[in-house]
Amino acid sequence: MLSAIRSSVTKSAVLKRTFATSSGKTQYTSLQNGVTIATESNPAATSASIGLYYGAGSTAENAWNNGASNLLNKAVVGENTAEAAKKGLVFSANTEREYSSYLVQGSSSSLSDAVEFLNSKVASFELNDATVSKYRESLAQEVATFEETQFGEKALEHLHNTAFQNTPLALPKRGTSETISDLITSDLAKFHKDNYVSSNAVVVATGNVDHAAIVDLVEKKLSIPSGIAPKVAAPKFLGSEVRLRDDTLPGAWIALAQKGAAVNSPDFYVAKVAAEIFGSYNYHEPIAKNLGVKLNGVVNENHLADTYSHFSLSYKGAGLFGAQFFITNIGQIDDFVHFLLKEWNRLSISITDTEIARGKQLLKNKLAFALDSQAAVNQSIGSQIVVSGRRASLEEAFAKIDKVDSAAIKAWAQANLWDQDIAVAGTGQIEDLLDYNRMRNDTSMMRW
């Protein structure tokens, strides 16, 4: 018996999984030209990643050059991936609403080559008409395919468009097939010149790295033009709706939200916990009815929805708290929306400590599990610094989550959800998505 226990313990020790993060602290240095350098060292790592982040995603665009950041990313990566591979490096890029990133991964000994690569291929990248034309056509087709097949994400894009009308956050982060098809070389060159400047740049190194050595490499080998990026207009939430009814589709995809917490809001983690209280659901999973969430039980018993997922999306100066859902039982869309909003009502008046504790643990799990590679750690650091100015460590995030209690949840919900406007976007068979005012009335209830 004891030998079996020892065997089990030994196997557990061998199979125990560790996160890509270490106990290392994120270190920061700001250069005179405005570039911020951040590193998080993990001496146990056998590789390293270095990323170049610019505060220039779709929010840095306008209605006429929407998609410029996405096309620029595609062109830079597409033209240089093969060359990176020859040097033993892995090159990738990403475009989000508030930033664009370029990441090079390799061994610790290749960091000098990686910085030189970022300098020549990103900071000093020059475009020509042939290159732009090549990637413009493929990206326009890619975005058109997205619009015709990814209806859930399409509803979320339209949710941003209606919730933040006439502000930069309203623009699709990928662009549209129409705007991308109209982009020319001078559009991308201007976007690069205006936004890829030192005051708008963050360099992040993770893995087996030394902070002082990275700072020295960046100072010597990375030449980012000086300048100040154009100011982005502040977003403002607007209660509204957009409907794209299409009865040829096999169901209804809907996104519904209210005003959330901005990235630097003191309620950032409160809103995150609130979203995890209700979490996500899939009718076709056997465990769906046993997750211990009141909303899941009602939805599962009556098949009100096939899937739903709550979110708390945070940006500079604005946020969205809501859910996106897919329904094939199209005659009960109104029922699902009613029960959904009534559950949100409970955040203001009767949410329990048990539900909050569960939501806090789920949020901690989500934050920790997201850091499953050096590239993910790098992305976490870079994106947070570009958007909010600094990166919260897991320990700091967990400490703030632990402070969230029922009083904090109720105070936030009463101020932002109770009897407040909603934003709605839907596509597919949405005939039973009833009048806006009917949904708006469900954001509160009569209490005797």
UniProtKB/TrEMBL annotation:
Superkingdom classification of source: Eukaryota
GO annotation, biological process: aerobic respiration; protein processing involved in protein targeting to mitochondrion
Keywords from the named record: Hydrolase
Domain Peptidase M16 C-terminal span(s) in chain numbering: 187-363
GO function terms (MF aspect): metal ion binding; metalloendopeptidase activity
Gene3D superfamilies: Metalloenzyme, LuxS/M16 peptidase-like
Pfam family, one: Peptidase_M16
Cited SUPFAM superfamilies: LuxS/MPP-like metallohydrolase (SSF63411)
PANTHER family listed in its UniProt record: CYTOCHROME B-C1 COMPLEX SUBUNIT 1, MITOCHONDRIAL (PTHR11851:SF126), METALLOPROTEASE (PTHR11851)
UniProt name for this protein: COR1 protein
